[in-house]
Amino acid sequence: MKLLLKIAFLLFVLFVLVLLGRENRGTVDFTLPPLLPNKITLPSAIMYYVFFAIGVVTGSILTAGMGKSEGKGGGSSSGKSGK
């Protein structure tokens, strides 16, 4: 059930990105003087995709390796007694 909810959420986000791409065709100027010396001018839909991709990569890096550890809970993870 949890997997189905995640898939539905992902499809919803992709649908919103498609709508953003179809409806926002104007150009946007992006400046970031400390890192980018020149102004970047792109269609706004491309900017949405770029910022979404940066967010996905950032979230993936921050959550990488955060699985369940075996020692958590104070007991043995196998549930067997020591006999």
Helix content: 40-55%
Count up the helices: 2
Q: Give a quick account of the main beta sheet: strands, pairing sense, barrel closure.
A: 2 strands, antiparallel
Structural class: alpha+beta
The main sheet orders its strands as: 1-2
Counting DSSP E segments of at least 2 residues, the number of strands comes to 2
Distance between the termini: 37 Å
- Please state roughly what percent of the residues sit in beta strands, choosing from under 5%, 5-15%, 15-25%, 25-35%, 35-45% or over 45%: 15-25%
Low-confidence stretches: none
Order of helices and strands: HEEH
Mean pLDDT rating: 80
- Overall, the morphology is flat
From the alpha carbons, calculate the radius of gyration and give it in angstroms.
21 Å
Please write out the topology:
Elements: H1 2-23, E1 27-32, E2 36-43, H2 44-63
Antiparallel strand pairs: 1-2
Helix pairs in contact: 1-2
